[in-house]
Specification:
The complex is a heterodimer.
Chain A: H1 2-19, E1 33-37, H2 44-58, E2 66-70, H3 77-84, E3 92-96, H4 99-107, E4 117-125, E5 128-132, H5 140-150, E6 155-160, H6 165-177, E7 181-186, H7 189-197, E8 203-204, H8 208-216, E9 220-225, E10 260-266, H9 272-286, H10 289-297, H11 307-328
Helix pairs in contact in A: 4-11
Chain B: H1 2-14, H2 17-35, H3 41-55, H4 61-87, H5 96-107, H6 111-145, H7 149-164, H8 171-185, E1 188-189, E2 196-197, H9 211-230, H10 244-252, H11 257-272, H12 277-291, H13 303-319, H14 321-327, H15 333-344, H16 353-356, H17 358-381, H18 383-388, H19 394-413, H20 416-434, H21 440-463, H22 474-487, H23 489-501
Antiparallel strand pairs in B: 1-2
The chains are: A alpha/beta, B mainly alpha.
Chain lengths: ~325, ~500
Amino acid sequence: MRTRISGAIGAALAAAAFTWPLAGQAWEPTRNIEFIIPAGTGGGADQMARAIQAIVAKHKLAKVAVLPINKSGGAGAEGFLDVKNSPGEPHKIIITLSNLFTTPLATNTPFNWRDLTPVQMLALDNFVLWVNAKSPYKTPKEYVEAAKKAGSGKFKMAGTGAKQEDQIITVAIEQATGAKFTYIPFKGGGAVATQLVGGHADSTVNNPIEAVAQWRGGNLRPLCVFEKQRMPYKNKVTKDMSWNDIPICKQAGLDIDYLMLRGIFMPPNVSAEQVDYYLGLFAKIFETPEWKDLMERGAFNQTRLKGKEYADWVAREEARHVSLMKAAGFIAGK
Amino acid sequence: MEEIQSLLQGFAVALTWKNLLFMFLGIVLGVLIGVLPGLGGANGVAILLPLTFTMAQTPGGTTTAIILLSCIYWGALFGGAITSILFNIPGEPWSVATTFDGYPMAQQGRAGQALTASFTASFFGALVAVVMITFVSPIIAEFALAFGPPEFFSVFLLTFCAFIGMSKEPPFKTLASMMLGFLLASVGTDTVTGTLRFNFGSIWLLNGFNFLVAVIGLFGIGEILLTLEEGLAFKGKDAKMSLRVVMETWKELPRYWMTAIRSSAIGCFMGVVPGGATPASFMAYGMAQRFSRDGERFGTGKVEGVVAPEVANNAAGTSALLPMLTLGVPGSPTAAVLLGGLMIWGLQPGPLLFIEQKEFVWGLIASMYLGNIAGLIVVLTCVPLFAAILRTPFSVIAPIIVVICAIGAYTVYNSIFDVWMMVVFGVAGWAFKKLQYPLAPLVLALVLGDQAEASFRQSMIMSQGDLSLFFSNLLVGSMTTLAVVLLFWPLIALGWKKLRER
């Protein structure tokens, strides 16, 4: 291991020594890359970041190592502020989730995605409406009708965090249908799925990867996916269903779509060459079998944007979060 | 017995030279990680996780990889006690309760006994948990599903109540210390509403006060300050240094069979639920004190006071892997990282894991037996070595301890602010000792306050403010009742005595 590290350092130094005098040459990292995760260990963003670290190490895609660091304080604000406050630092990248938008809006933390440099959208994470397999509901319509009939607040929706994506979707469902749920916030997606299996909640909007094990175990039932089209994965996940077999919520009478960004940003004021290096690195990562496998296991939407398209997408999404959160009353007073 | 057959096949999988090598490697690394405060098992496993990715690609490699990682975990569970006993610095949050009697023992020159008792107790606890995982895992997994927010809250309530009455300090000092702990625990992001509390606009307090930073300061730095004041010397320097200590201590241990069984039950329960190893160790300590004939003398260096928390924390740490494997819900932060590892390797924890990945699961369970035996051998042979550390002059070791503490505090969140926080907590720890306020209630409230608050408020959201929820079924009702009984035990015992005298 030591020889490998010193070898890598040596190679990096050699590379730096050779490339230094040649202006305009492609930029390469000269020390290990800090990979900030604005969320705790074990969650979706953390898993993806650690998978990227492992893929880079295994296929030797970079001359230096990628080191994930969790900075989850203040619903991720800690991580975002760290990156914002490292202008021009090319050895630092951050993976984002929807807290890129929701955290500054809900807590008044002083940052905005425009403070960072957008690099690459990795994928979009889906949300599925799940109920306990023992419950009688087969369609979202049946479920929503039952919730309405039971009365305001009688049905419980478990979700990850407060004023974040799960609760935003819950409020969107309430506004679209007139049903009223009691939203119970938990710390992680795994705990949310277990609460539903254990019958302590009536439904969840877990990401596929958070609930898939319990779905396959016959404990959960997906009602619909909050997407514009069906998920493309046709391999059977359970005995008789694939991700592709889950209907989209809009067709099932629940006109809501929501996807969560899994994307990469860099600190402000980095050069175009430095951004290009990471674009090249991720292009190589996307081609590995491990990455493709991860995408299928988590039933991700594989939209990959970069450059201006990515920034435009993020801007649109920010505006959408402002209106969603305003409607839900989640915006912090100044 | 289908399980025995599966287990034997598991041993066949686990018992290769390569796996044994990685097992010992993992244990040694784990003990080191456990010794260094701040660098917890979760961090250690996370750092090594990527290395195992390549390993997992070879046939049978996933088993080797999980053996390496889980052995780091066992090692950390063993090793956490070492600094607690020698220097009053808990290497891991779950070894705080071990300091209560372990450190006084070391000061009396009985560090060897304390370490032996702690390691043996750890082994016993882990063994009970593994046997439980082997034979009754499906039933236990179902049981974990019964736990919703009210059940979790009643477990935390039970922990607090089991602990509160036992303090020898005046009740109001205990209460004051505990409330201070709750106050500190409430700083940072509030899980239930997502808003920031008590950070006074500072970005440094976004994360709240980390438990480990507080503990390293309160115990470690506080202790160094006290020693400085009292004359720059370790009290335990005449610790015995031969392996005979191990045998002598073993002769004494069977006396505490009742404590060991009670603590393993508490540990297994808390691990599966998953409440975690830290509350398990506190609860076991509190219960041991209550039910021991010698309860009065707990905290003065009783072997029983080391056995109880150590059995419980290893039983909990080990059984925490069960909900991870069968439900995909990690019972501890380390289990959370292991869970991430399983997913990266392409395994899917959940109800089907035991059916689809039989070889892997039973290989892992077999490695739990082997890993713990390996761990016990490694740490026991090192007992004289550890005890010898106390012979080093204070002027040499104290700066080293301070540096290790500072590194530990820094590692938790990679933040220099935490190092200053540690110093502040150190001074606070010293002041607490001087004013004879107990530290343990503060620590307990700081580590569990957050979760207890979250589960209480989740329950109140569910029931729309109706407290009768905590008596709404047999499980939660009996735990809440038990908690109330334990809280008022001194009064109840007094009343009982009066009644009998009449």
